[in-house]
Write a structure and sequence with these properties.
The structure is a homodimer.
Chain A: E1 16-28, E2 32-39, E3 42-49, H1 50-54, E4 63-72, E5 80-91, H2 110-115, H3 117-120, H4 124-146, E6 150-151, E7 157-158, E8 170-173, E9 176-180, H5 185-196, E10 198-206, E11 219-228, H6 233-254, H7 256-262, E12 275-277, H8 278-289, H9 300-314, E13 318-322, E14 335-336, E15 340-341, E16 343-348, E17 351-359, H10 363-372, H11 381-384, E18 394-400, H12 401-408
Parallel strand pairs in A: 3-5, 6-10, 12-13
Antiparallel strand pairs in A: 1-2, 1-4, 2-3, 4-5, 7-9, 8-9, 10-11, 11-18, 13-16, 14-15, 16-17, 17-18
Chain lengths: ~425, ~425
């Protein structure tokens, strides 16, 4: 007999069905028991005679197979239930469950949740986070594909770091030393120059950062894009604005079930996202909030306060901060005057979720800017070579998938938006 | 003025346009020159007066911006051309091109092609390979999403190898030793058990194989799927059959332009893919082709010959080989009798493009099978733990993206189906 999914049962009243899933809850009455079965599509109440049940090791979270008749019958879950006539335990639970999955909220701390990831993910409030994350990723791809972008897969084992700094993992690559990519920066620029013009990649990137905060992961999913034939970074911001509108409306439309489980509403972008020079933001933070210590960048508190200001002033949860100082941005960033750059960050509800900007497209300027940043152009020959043979003006951005998910769903920690996180101490599961 | 793409020009006859792209070809006549401009959508012939051109450094592959009028006029490319009135060199080519991009075929050897990847990818025959690869990936995602699969992102930095063997890259993870994932095997199984039931992932995996053949890469894209609540591996093969039909018909439909550039036709699967026990295949190879040396697996020649046999006998380019011996398959593979397993490979035109099968879902059997394979269950505790709390029967497979692309398009070497390959010697670009 073919398996029927629980969300298909409502059209099968009085029919015999085979359903399979996990034992979510058991309530034993005098002669019968109510067993709530869970599969990937939902929950259903099933009725079994106690005499039949007692023969078997019938425990919570066991995987079972039920054959029975779908009967009308109002209960807290559905307007029907299943009268079980035959059943089989496919794989019984062996040990006491370390966490309680059938409570309304999963009341465990973050470590317990992550140590028991396979179990915590079975909770619908946890599961729903990743269903929403799926929609973000799908929306990103769909919008960019519709705009003529090509998806690319670029190497994560690299011979040089793209973002500078020492926060880079080392790999033993046969007799050579290699590194894990901090970003696909060089390669996405190459692919613009290779004639694709517009490319995107959704893949892991690696940062060997020592600090273990609620907004850092050592391995995270970066949604990257890069586009050629732009005038400046404003076109990249324009694209991100449309991209985010598309993603947010997709979630509102297709994520209803999961949003209601999470008791969340998704903000929409009604007109445009405010754009503000970083220096202006720093002035506002000084004058309005008495924050005087900021030098060329915001700290986490500054990000929260400027987001609050923008929300009050413009009613928007997003803000683009632009013109970051040259000394704070990587060597590939297009300078703007002596001290600033054609660059931006996007803050969403007080957290940076995007870094982007225009890149240098001329060979001489790139080499010069490398020297300005104290780098030796000779070490980047396979990268600089591409600028000798017709590189268009271009720019791009990267959105941190776990961060945008966490901010959208009001999660305290980016680890909650990661199936299996890697951080300073977490290498298993 | 807004940029117009070349494939939009046919609806703009007699209008003034701005086009931007690369200088593909220059043909100088007495007083005018024909310049063929290339952008991501195609080629167009442009007419410029020589007096205007001579002032500037007008070289092949320079990035330029043309303003002019679209005029009717038959030429080898289109039924129109652009009379250029104003132009700008956005970024001029600085050096002699190391390879010739505007020839009909790119006549360079593989090393030259890969060393000059940004240039070789500009050739439409090379570029088209990745447009088809995009359709494979899109088709894979679309079909599985329609079948209730959830996309997952699982860690590539891991504490233990999933596939056994020593072919694994080592990463320095702070004070610990870690590895690059050989496959998402453990994690995709976990996510089945975590209640998603059906999951897929498209991501890089890493194999530290010493050999440098035309079918091996040290970093490749694995299209993985895993599904719960199956009876046995036949359902996984059934799914792959439908999945491949979907992908092939998508390519035929949406890839016409690129297939015609590549002068390729895509095979379709008309009925079902033949399934044959590996032992039967070995018998056929012995009796029909005199290959007597095969023991429990095929060599590359054996793969080619059995594919030829199946093509002759059943008219199909694909064949499932099943029931691989237990000693040849990883410890998570479901045994079938004493010596065989519920497993399969899929060969396509003589090359293995998929490995799959049913997995062990019971804790005791898994631990026992680890010991049979000479592994210490204690070393896999975070993996075996998931089998204690209700793991459904499940199975899955992985398709190598570069391999299926190469086989579909008749490429000699999987590196040709990789934007930036990593192999035994290749760590740049």
């Amino acid at each position: 007999m073919k398996r029927t999914l629980i969300n298909e049962l409502n059209s099968m009243i009085n029919e015999r069905v085979l359903i399979q899933g996990w034992v979510h809850k058991i309530r034993k009455l005098k002669s019968i028991s109510f067993v709530i079965l869970r599969d990937r599509t939902g929950l259903v109440q099933c009725v079994i005679e106690n005499t039949a049940m007692e023969e078997k090791n019938f425990r919570l979270e066991s995987v079972v197979s039920f054959e029975g008749i779908v009967k009308e019958g109002k209960n807290s879950l559905n307007s029907f239930e299943v009268q079980v006539e035959q059943f089989e335990i496919i794989n019984g639970t062996k040990e006491e469950l370390p966490i309680e999955i059938n409570s309304e909220k999963l009341n465990v701390n973050l470590d317990t949740m992550l140590n028991n990831r396979v179990l915590s993910l079975r909770h619908e409030r946890i599961n729903s986070i990743f269903k929403i994350q799926n929609l973000i990723v799908e929306g990103f791809r769909e919008y960019l594909t519709s705009q003529g972008f090509t998806e690319i897969f670029t190497p994560k084992i690299v011979s040089e770091g793209a973002e500078g700094g020492t926060e880079i993992f080392e790999v033993k690559y046969f007799e050579n030393k290699a590194y894990l990519a901090q970003s696909p920066q060089f390669y996405k620029q190459m692919m613009v120059g290779a004639g694709f013009e517009r490319v995107f990649e959704i893949a892991h990137v690696y940062r060997a950062e020592q600090h273990n905060t609620n907004r850092h992961l050592n391995e995270y999913v970066s949604m990257d894009l890069e586009m050629g034939f732009i005038e400046d970074e404003n076109q990249v911001m324009n694209l991100e604005e449309e991209l985010l509108k598309y993603i947010l409306s997709k979630i509102s439309l297709k994520g209803k079930k999961y949003l209601s489980i999470l008791e969340m509403e998704i903000p929409q972008i009604n007109s445009t996202i405010p754009r503000m020079k970083l220096s202006e933001a720093i002035e506002i933070l000084k004058n309005k909030y008495g924050k005087t210590e900021l030098k060329g960048d915001l700290d986490p508190e500054g990000e929260k306060l400027i987001s609050r200001h923008v929300k009050e002033q413009y009613g928007c949860d997003f803000v683009f901060l632009t013109h970051y100082p040259r000394r704070k941005r990587p060597m590939y960033t297009m300078p703007c005057g002596e001290n600033e750059t054609h660059s931006f960050d996007l803050l969403f509800k007080g957290l940076e979720i995007t870094t982007g900007g225009q890149r240098i497209h001329r060979y001489e300027q790139l080499v010069e800017n490398m020297r300005y940043k104290g780098l030796e152009p000779e070490n980047y020959k396979s990268y600089t070579a591409i600028f000798k043979y017709g590189m268009p003006k271009h720019g791009g951005l990267a959105i941190g998938l776990e961060r945008i998910t966490a901010q959208l769903l009001g999660l305290e920690n980016v680890r909650e938006a990661t199936l299996i996180p890697r951080d300073r101490t977490r290498l298993v599961p």
